[in-house]
Amino acid sequence: MNLPAHPTKNLPARTRVLTADELDLLELALSGGPAWSPEGPTPVTLTDAENTPLAVADDDGVRAVKPFARAAGPHWDPALRRGADDVRAEVRGADVAAVVVAEAPTRSEVTVLPALTSGADRVLLLVPASRRAPAAGAVGAPGLVRVAADLADGLRTDATRVDVVVVPWPASSPARPGWADVAARYGATRSVVLAEHRDQADRERVGDLGSLWADEVADLYPEPSAREVVRAARTARRSGAVVFFTGLSGSGKSTVARALAAELDDEGLHTTLLDGDEVRHHLSKGLGFDKESRELNVERIGYVASLVASHGGVAVAAPIAPFASGRARVREHAEAAGTFLLVHVSTPLEVCEARDRKGLYAKARRGEIPEFTGISSPYEVPTDADLVIDTSQVDVADAVAQVRAALVARLDG
Ligand SMILES: Nc1ncnc2c1ncn2[C@@H]1O[C@H](COP(=O)(O)OS(=O)(=O)O)[C@@H](OP(=O)(O)O)[C@H]1O
Ligand SMILES: Nc1ncnc2c1ncn2[C@@H]1O[C@H](COP(=O)(O)OP(=O)(O)O)[C@@H](O)[C@H]1O
């Protein structure tokens, strides 16, 4: 990547934090791959999630400002993750066959590979590497790099040089270019996607490979692929979830949430309870109950809950969360991480007030607590609840059963 002399001076004030997919597209474009520019107004400074300025997009196109942060793993090895310009310059003049290794190759693909590359002076095994985690059970970039290194060893001859090249590649993006275009940018004179040459029998067997019995895997895949397929299956995480209770003080959120969390934990789902009161003693210590503080509190809960879900856990949160805007932001975050279930505990105010476990309603009525939800501060009734439970009508066990059933339906669906 050629960087200008004083790269970070006079950057546009408008900034845009790129998503993981956009970072992949930008890295590919700046290293000489197909052009890419962000949607939205320009000039703009493009940054990563840590707010490091990486590039500027303006009327002249997109130019680099700082090198990308690198991470660990074989797919970040600079000897393999080479820019398209660099590789193209090196292979110029040769007959170059590019082979895209996007999945662990089966035996039928390995068998057909020499024919696909026959006559080439150079073979580039292009391994797509996304900044996003692979889908559950799929072999990710590190595994594909190891598999490609084995393929290269098997293919190399005195007349044919074979190199593994890691290509930044968004997991899914409408702006993703075609492989033929990408391969040409890396200097290939012809290209194939290896998985498209999987024979029909192998294709069906890969689709049916639910049980992953060791002998079936070994029969279908050559040893290097089999090792990665089993490893990916072993580390596959079940997708996580956020169950978010909302409702008035005393409506029963904590009681139901606590019982639900205990039940899910008992079933082996790793469950984290983020109770409203408890959060305010730790994560949100010192925050008040004005609208801004409540929104901040709910946003923090949503952030932590989404982190839990993104690691395959179940987060059960139970704040009042009285404002639709805050709840919508939580939903947006959580749905990007896994399953989201909004449970409105709709117990009527009169019932909550009659329960008045902590004596807070009485105090609020006497004017001793300002901005008390339902008395002197609003509760915006959700219009997007996935489940509505009135605990003056159903007991705790019933409420837990309803939420559990809704969650299981989502996770399995
Ligand atoms: N002004 C006011 N309004 C509402 N609630 C109040 C207030 N002051 C203190 N409390 C106690 O704080 C608990 C609610 O905190 P939350 O973090 O769930 O509220 S919010 O989501 O930020 O609105 C709530 O606990 P729960 O009864 O468990 O809901 C109350 O005990
Ligand atoms: N069906 C029910 N579900 C949940 N709580 C109930 C139910 N019936 C009575 N309650 C009582 O209502 C109170 C609810 O308090 P809590 O769970 O702390 O509510 P919140 O967290 O919404 O403030 C508890 O004292 C609980 O025992």
From TrEMBL:
Q: Which residues form a coiled coil?
A: none
Occurrences of domain APS kinase (ranges): 240-390
The annotated pathway is: Sulfur metabolism; hydrogen sulfide biosynthesis; sulfite from sulfate: step 2/3
- Which CDD domains does the UniProt entry name for this protein? APSK (cd02027)
Query: What catalytic reaction does the record list?
Result: adenosine 5'-phosphosulfate + ATP = 3'-phosphoadenylyl sulfate + ADP + H(+)
Q: Which UniProt keywords apply?
A: ATP-binding, Kinase, Nucleotide-binding, Phosphoprotein, Transferase
Residues that bind ATP: 247-254
Show the SUPFAM superfamilies listed in the entry. P-loop containing nucleoside triphosphate hydrolases (SSF52540)
- Report the EC number(s), separated by commas if there are several: 2.7.1.25
- Which family is this protein grouped under? Belongs to the APS kinase family.
PANTHER family in the cross-refs? SULFATE ADENYLYLTRANSFERASE
Question: Could you tell me what this protein does?
Answer: Catalyzes the synthesis of activated sulfate.
Q: What is this protein called?
A: Adenylyl-sulfate kinase
